[in-house]
Design brief:
Order of helices and strands: HH
Radius of gyration: 16 Å
Helix content: 55-70%
Low-confidence stretches: none
Number of helices: 2
Mean pLDDT: 86
Distance between the termini: 35 Å
């Protein structure tokens, strides 16, 4: 399922609007709920993704 934030093509978008936008707050709450449900179903997969991102970030820092 493709998740598209309500910010895409929003006419009212401005710097820092995520802090006060009710549409974004609702979108983010939905994302967090889906993430929590996924974590409960597949805790090892979530851990593996986290470790992979950390390794990639560390490798990127070493290349600089």
């Amino acid at each position: 399922m493709a998740m598209i934030a309500p910010c895409k093509d929003c006419a009212e978008r401005h710097v820092g609007c995520h802090a006060s936008c009710p549409r974004y707050a609702e979108f983010k709450a939905g994302c967090e709920a889906r993430r929590e449900a996924r974590t409960k179903q597949h805790p090892i997969a979530d851990y593996t993704i986290d470790i992979t991102k950390r390794v990639q970030k560390a490798a990127h820092r070493r290349r600089k």
